[in-house]
Amino acid sequence: MTKRKLAGIIAGCTVVIVAVALLVMFHPWRPSISPPMYSLSVDVSPSGSGSVSLCPLGGEYQANAGVTLTATATDGYRFVDWTGNVGTVADVNSASTAVSMMGNYSITANFAPAVLEIRDWYDLDSVRDNLDGNYLLMNDLDSATAGYAELASSTANDGMGWEPIGTYSDGFTGSFIGQGYEIRDLFINRPDQDYVGLFALVFWIHPIENVGAIENVGVVSANVTGHSQVGALVGDNRGIVNNSYSTGGVTNGHTYIGGLVGYSDGGVVSSSNSAGNVSGFRYVGGLVGGITGTQNVREGTVMNCYSTSSVTSYTRTAGLVASIVADGNVTGCYFAGSVNGTRWVAGLVAENCGGTVSDSYSMGNVTGRDYSGYVGGAVGVNVWGGTISNCYSSGPVNGKTPVGGLVGENSDGTVNSSVWDIQTSGQSASDGGIGKSTTEMKSIATFTGAGWDIVAVTDPDVADPAYIWNIVDGRTYPFLSWQS
Questions:
Q1: H-state helical runs in 302-371
Q2: What is the torsion angle, in degrees rounded to the nearest 10, for the CA atoms of residue 311, residue 479, residue 420 and residue 284?
Q3: For residue 370, is it within any domain?
Q4: Is the pTM higher than 0.85?
Q5: Is 9 inside any structural domain?
Q6: Which of 23, 58, 284, 350 could connect to 380 by a Cys-Cys bridge, CB 3.0–4.6 Å?
Q7: Is residue 337 part of a domain?
Q8: In percent, how much of the chain has pLDDT > 90?
């Protein structure tokens, strides 16, 4: 074959190949090549707190497509941020933002309860309309603040004064943060009503972490009267009361009356205090009327609290907590006021029925008047397996038998490593505990020998928080390290 023929064949084949290629490329039946598709799924947290819209609508988008995400909060919530596959989200902190589709994405809009500001009595009154809301007190409220005459004065509500927030069936489950401000001049006169206070009932619902909480607020110069479960701040606490106080006021009632909280059913009262006059018929405590556990779920607890109240009642009268029932405990507390009752009278706890009183003391004046009995410097009656440990009493104790410098009567209970001052109490006997002289009560050796968690310091204003108890050896009685 000649070279000329071979070149002609090659040229002809090239033309054919090129023609076929062009035919394949431009033939109308040739299928087009589409870009990949990606899915976008969205969710909200917590459930029911808001919604998310997409623009354009759908959920399936071409690669590199831009999609606008818009989060809308439901009433009582606010948008927080976007989480999940947010690598191409323009702004994770904006409720309306864009995402570029570079893969299959799952993105969550996160919401949190809205924070509502309280500036006057009208704002405070509106809390009852949203009992699971979150509130910040922005300033003091008193008789000169807007809304006082209509809502919280002695002429408000036909002379009944303030209407407590919440009810037995619909308690407060939100948060109320006082920021150190005070609510002053509160007036309530509802002698036939139960669950009485600024808040009627602070509640908890499942899960256990979902509790109403009141923190960092003072109730000052209040005049509060109710029937049962009555306190200046809360009538019945099943949630948390923390770092709060009542002072300079009067709390009156019949049963379960407290200077700060009337009753605490599985609730926590911590780092709080009370001062003022507290009175009633029975179960009256300077800080809390009574505590117990709830539904075998959690203990009622009063911890790191104190009272300097003046407390009077007929029976079950105490400077701190009138009554503890099983699964209740008082720990790290003290009393430094006065108590006056007829039966079951004490500085810390009048009646401990199966609960625990630990690392606490009373230096208050305890008086059982008339035909009184069951009077103790720290605890009036300790029964049903109640436990008292690492406690002491140093205040004067007066009453009729049974009466004790530390415990009036101990029946089927336990008293461990606890002492009282036989000189300052005026009592040489106690149904539990060991009597000591004033000198011994001010010696660290008395307490280290009893196994207390205690250390000597040089000044009561300079405490060592690594220990529960501090003492200036030879000068002071033991005191709780958190006091300084």
A1: none
A2: 20
A3: no
A4: no
A5: no
A6: 350
A7: no
A8: 84
Question: CB-based burial of residue 249 (10 Å sphere; 0-12 exposed, 13-18 middle, 19+ buried)?
Answer: buried
The dihedral region occupied by 457, where left means phi > 0, alpha psi between -120 and 50, and beta the remainder, is beta
State whether residue 148 is helix, strand or coil: helix
What 3-state class would DSSP assign to 350? Answer: strand
Q: From CA 235, how far away is CA 226, in angstroms rounded?
A: 9
> Do residues 253 and 234 lie in contact, with contact meaning Cβ atoms separated by under 8 Å?
no
Q: What is the pLDDT of residues 347-403, one digit of tens each?
A: 999 999 999 999 999 999 999 987 778 999 999 999 999 999 999 999 999 999 999
Where b means 16+ CB within 10 Å and e means fewer, 350-363 reads bbbbbbbbbbbbbb
Helical (H) or strand (E) element with 26: helix 3-26
* Rounded distance between C-alpha atoms, residue 101 and residue 86, angstroms: 10
Identify the domain containing residue 75 by its residue range.
37-113
How far is 211 from 298, CA to CA, in rounded Å? 12
Looking only at the bridges linking them, the beta strands covering 187-189 and 223-225 are parallel
Of the candidates 395, 302, 394, which has an alpha carbon nearest to the alpha carbon of residue 356? Answer: 302
Tokens representing 253 are 């009632």
Choose one of 113, 146, 164: the last residue of a domain: 113
Domain boundary among 80, 113, 146: 113
CA distance 159 to 161: 5
pLDDT of residue 226: 98
Give the model's pLDDT for residue 9. 44
How many distinct structural domains can be found in the chain? 2
Q: Find out whether 360 and 334 touch, Cβ atoms under 8 Å.
A: yes
Residue 58 maps to a domain: yes
For 13, the 3-state DSSP assignment is helix
The amino acid that residue 258 corresponds to is: G
- pLDDT for the residue numbered 58: 83
Q: Where are the alpha helices (DSSP H) in 274-405?
A: none
Query: How does DSSP assign 168-204, residue by residue?
Result: SSS-B-SEEE-TT-EEES-EEE-TT-SSBSSEEEE-E
